[in-house]
Amino acid sequence: MPEPFRIGLLGHGTVGGAFHELIAARADAVAATSGRRPEITGVLRRSEGDFDQILAESDVVVELIGGTNPARDYVLRALEAGKHVVTANKQLVAQHGEELFAAARESGVQLRFEAAVAGVVPVIRVIQESLAATEMTKVFGIVNGTTNFILTEMARTGASFDEVLAQAQELGYAEADPTADVGGADAAAKMAILARLAFHTPVHLDDVSYEGITEIQPDDLAYAKELGLSLKLLGVAELRDGGFSVRVFPCFLYRGHPLAPVEGPFNAVMVQAPAINEITISGPGAGGMATATAVLGDVVSILSGDAPVHDTQRELAMVRDVSSSFYLHLEVADRPGVLAAVADVLGQAGISVRSVVQRGSGEQARLVMVMHDTPEAAFYGALDELGKLDFMRATPRAIRVIEAEFPDPVD
Ligand SMILES: NC(=O)c1ccc[n+]([C@@H]2O[C@H](COP(=O)([O-])OP(=O)(O)OC[C@H]3O[C@@H](n4cnc5c(N)ncnc54)[C@H](OP(=O)(O)O)[C@@H]3O)[C@@H](O)[C@H]2O)c1
Questions:
Q1: Is 47 in the pocket of ligand 1 (CB under 6 A)?
Q2: Sorting pLDDT into bands at 50, 70 and 90, what band is 405?
């Protein structure tokens, strides 16, 4: 009878509790395929357990506490003691990844973290293992289920951000303090991890620029519908101009885009590489059992023995001024010459217009436009100039648009 594979479990909350249940349900199946039966030999929570004892009695430490402190200390000590580690902690990997990868390398053990990005969607595995042989040029997608749920419901019902956020909290899709989700910081940490793995370069979380969805207005979504657009909070990591860029921002997508139909609390990630064109993977990005399933998948991978390599191969510079296409929402006075004056400001900045919708009259007059790709610095300069025009009734609002053409899905 082979020795059981001993698991020290740190954290027994939403994911830790689900992981415990999953082990009880799936241990025999894992034993049948891997040869060793996983068994939880110790649990640490605030009120229970002794870390040193758990460490001494485990082959793998599963960290499901969250945050960086004390999780970093526990994970480092486990790696230094020669134990494999599995974690679902995006903040830990995004902020302390290099230190932890080095400790794992030094001790010859595995550090796996599939559940830290996009829950059970196996994006880490795809980037590090399935696509290890190709040069990836872009990784982007919807990596925060809370914001995707909110944007989906705002578009569907016409309700405001605050109303839908309250509903999301009631349904358990948003936390009591939703700041990290709705402000974009959660997605930024996940994109930093994906960029690090796809481009084999160190990524400093402070260099990742991010915007959230708190300023999105219901009428942006209503007008966008008329233009055939749907709104997502996108994380985008890409190689550009000899360097790379990692950003998170709300963004409109045209109807045929593979990410446009991803609705509710779902996540989806696309990876592009010249050799493969692109792939898209999607599924539940959170939830106790879904996340625990990804954690157990990592434990099974450790049992199988294949170790992903976390080495960096180069140090690329972060590129900041990138080009984007924009949606522009202008509340204007209802009088002749307005459109020509707006077109003049845009023309002088070298910005060309893809489509325009004029709506309302009097106090309700609005111009809603979509631009073609333009350097962001030039666009924001033009936005400042537009804000100074005397017929502008409110500060102009701009949201990025992914212009890439995808065929409309077959109805
Ligand atoms: N929830 C999800 O859907 C989801 C999805 C993807 C990734 N994740 C990640 O999974 C991890 C766990 O999330 P969760 O939602 O399961 O969190 P949670 O429900 O808040 O559970 C946290 C657990 O950690 C324990 N803990 C907290 N501080 C501790 C300390 N100082 N010492 C020892 N134990 C401590 C808590 O102990 P007590 O039981 O004593 O309070 C609790 O058991 C996080 O990194 C999170 O980002 C979660």
A1: yes
A2: low
What is the mean predicted confidence (pLDDT) over 79-106?
A: 97
Two tokens, residue 316: 């690329």
Q: For the chain, give the mean pLDDT.
A: 94
What tokens appear for 81 in the block? 């003691």
Q: How far apart are CA 346 and CA 371, in angstroms?
A: 9
177 close to ligand 1 (CB < 6 Angstrom): no
Q: What is residue 234's DSSP assignment?
A: E
pLDDT of residue 264: 94
What pLDDT does 364 receive?
Answer: 87
Tokens of 242: 């000899």
Contact status, residue 15 vs residue 115, Cβ threshold 8 Å? yes
What digits encode the pLDDT tens for the residues 281-308? Answer: 999 988 999 999 999 999 999 998 878 8
Distances (CA, A) of 331 to 95, 320, 395: 41, 30, 8
pLDDT at 409 (0 to 100): 52
CA distance 131 to 403: 26
Q: State whether the beta carbon of 180 lies less than 6 angstroms from ligand 1.
A: no
Residue 104 pLDDT > 50, yes or no?
yes
Neighbour tally for 332: CB within 10 Å: 21
Q: What is the pLDDT of residue 349?
A: 95
For residue 281, give both structure tokens: 């993977």
CA of 16 to the centre of ligand 1 (A): 7
Best probe residue, ligand 1, of 9, 46, 53 (max atoms within 8 Å of C-beta)? 46
Q: What is the pLDDT of residue 297?
A: 97
The verdict on the CB of residue 290 being under 6 Å from ligand 1 is no
Q: Calculate how far, in angstroms, residue 89's C-alpha sits from the geometric centre of ligand 1.
A: 9
Q: 3 pLDDT band (50/70/90 cuts)?
A: very high
Q: Report the candidate in 203, 266, 206 with the shortest Cα–Cα distance to residue 233.
A: 266
Contact, 149 vs 175, CB < 8 A? Answer: no
Pocket flag, ligand 1, residue 70 (CB < 6 Å)? yes
The protein residue whose alpha carbon is closest to atom 18 in ligand 1 is 13
CA–CA distance, 115 with 294 (Å, rounded to integer) = 5
- Whole-number Å distance, alpha carbon 401 to ligand 1 midpoint, is 36
- Considering the candidates 90, 138, 190, 232, report the single residue annotated as catalytic: 190
pLDDT: which is higher, 311 or 167: 167
Whether residue 83 lies in the annotated active site: no
